[in-house]
Amino acid sequence: MSATAESPSARTPLTRRAPWRWGGVAMAVGLAAALAFDAWYGRHLEMEARVAVQRAMGPTAAALRTAVAHRVAQLNGLHSFVESQPSRARLDATFQTFAGGVASSTQGVRTLQLVEDGVIVATWPLAGNERALGYNLLRDSRPEVPDGVRRAMATDSIVITGPIALVQGGEGLLVRRRLTPRPGFPDLVAVILDVPSIVLEAGIPNAASGLHLEVRDRAGHWFGGDTLSADATPESIRIPVPDGDWTLRGAPVAGWAAYSAPQRLAARAAGAAVVIALALLGALFGLRQARMQDAITSRTARLGVALRAGRMGTWELDVLADRMTFDENGAAIVGRPLAEVDGPLEKFFHMIHPEDAAFVARVFLEILKSDRPEYTLEHRVLLPDGSERWVLVIGEIERGSQGQAVRAHGIISDASDRRAIEARARHMERVETIGTMAGGVAHDFNNLLTAMTSFVELARDGLGSPEPNSSLAMVRDDLEEALKVSSRAKGLTAQLLAFSRGAASEPRAADLGTTLHEMEPLLRRLLGQRITLDVQVAAGTPGVWIDPSQFTQVVLNLVVNARDAIQGRGDIAIRLRRIQSSEDRPARAPTGEWVLLQVRDSGRGMSPEVMQRVFEPYFTTKEESRGTGLGLAVVMGVVRAAGGHALVESEVGRGTAFWIFLPALDAQGRRVSPPAGTPTRTA
After folding, report:
1. HEC sequence for 466-486
2. Does the domain spanning 504-683 belong to CATH 1.20.1560.10?
3. Are the C-beta atoms of residues 172 and 194 closer than 8 Å to each other?
4. What is the pLDDT of residues 643-675, one digit of tens each?
5. Pairing between strand 531-537 and 570-579?
6. Which of 203, 267, 280, 666 shows the greatest Cβ crowding within 10 Å of its Cβ?
7. How large is the angle between the packed helices 512-527 and 471-499, nearest 10 degrees?
8. Is 64 or 682 the better-scoring residue by pLDDT?
């Protein structure tokens, strides 16, 4: 027998002992593994719980950011409005109207103010806030108020004071921004925001959701949601706001351990099974692998959500195989399913706008031949419905050992909104420049007309009373006609001045029927030959207390809006009449006696979603090069300043009707149906 051979008698004890030995070793290893796994899994579950809480807090954090940004935008709108005013007199004349229009589009805007050297010089609403005029903020007894004013006067950025208790009651934010220094102008604009409205709009869930959420300001003071205890160890999300950050904090109502208790109990049961039955080790290993795969899948899904939220997708190009692939987000950006976009590079080039295809192809080939590792391209793609979309393509080139391009990959994103915002900003600048130029030309032309009219009147008066049918009588008749033409030309310049907003507000008892008839020639020239205009003024329509130039602006804005809604030929009807409680009117119309201006068109109409926002400042559905989003906001501001109401009725494909209700005046110049809280104005 060789030295390495074993007899059956020698092997038997080892065979009998081996299961116990390896069983003991396996149990010891299993117990150690189970204990280590339990400790690791407890930390893992807490991490997952914190990730889940962070994810659950995300929509609330986004809603808070949106709510604050929406309200800060009103301050920026007020800032731009004041900066654009040509004179202090013009600013004083239009501040209340513009401020009312801005505040009406946002919940929680308590007050809009103009401040000069720390002193409040104008405030909206004026009613109930008269005592605020002349108030010196630098001497306010609350230390954070003068500190905020001084910081705002020393920086070009937005400064936020608060949340603090407001003199008007409640809790609010004081948001300020410095103006460009101009002699005689305010140096600050300020907006007072209602903090509870911001918290309410963010929709912070209560404890019934399983989470405690609270909001703290940059100083760590609580001002919304549940109050968390010091030992809650909450998760936090930073809420960027101008002049500092807020913090949204959240923790499970039952605590972190209880939040993940069911999962941990299941893991311990699995660990006990591993220790008792070694055969389950393989199954547990498979379970662990599956959980790891789930984590990878979950992360991949979150990445997909993030890409969709950012309107981005991924792509990859195998240069050697000439095959380009997209993910679902990338395919959605070019408006096609995956099956239609994956394939040769040439297929993608067929989706590019014909005017951009040659440029993109030339640049892309140059990049592949160069040694550039990265590149960025912006161009248009054609969607299946024939519309176009701007996309931003960012790529990275992988090269072989000889420097040749072998693969390219990157992201593709929708750039249409950004380009639309840039175009709208450029358009608003052009509109403002044209309005200023039109006002200047109208002023100069009006001066020339005044001089010409004076000379014609002198020539007419110099002729005296010539004999009928004489040559001098004919000359006098010609001079009279020249004066009539000059008078009509003055009316045109007045309308141009009103359109350019160059005239101060001067409300008075006005005959809107006369004003509307005087505007009719201008409106017909504005509409051209393709649109039929029908203007009807009912007999006996009473007067209205309003600035006629502002009424002219209201009509112009409504007619231009109606014109732009009509594609091809159509018609616009303008009706002016007295309306009483017994007559037919929209369901939301005010009761009582009013003067009704109705502008109805046969255009494409509006959806319910658009109608809800139609009077918001800077909201528009027009193309990039048309419309500033201010026309209907100005209409609402003028109507409310006159104590009236504005309603809109529309249906897609059935046209639109605007109803403007203005308080009627009686024979003594008093309002027949003044709005609640508005004093009766008399002529």
Report:
1. CCCCCHHHHHHHHHHHHHHHH
2. no
3. yes
4. 899 999 988 988 999 999 999 888 777 776 655
5. parallel
6. 267
7. 80
8. 64
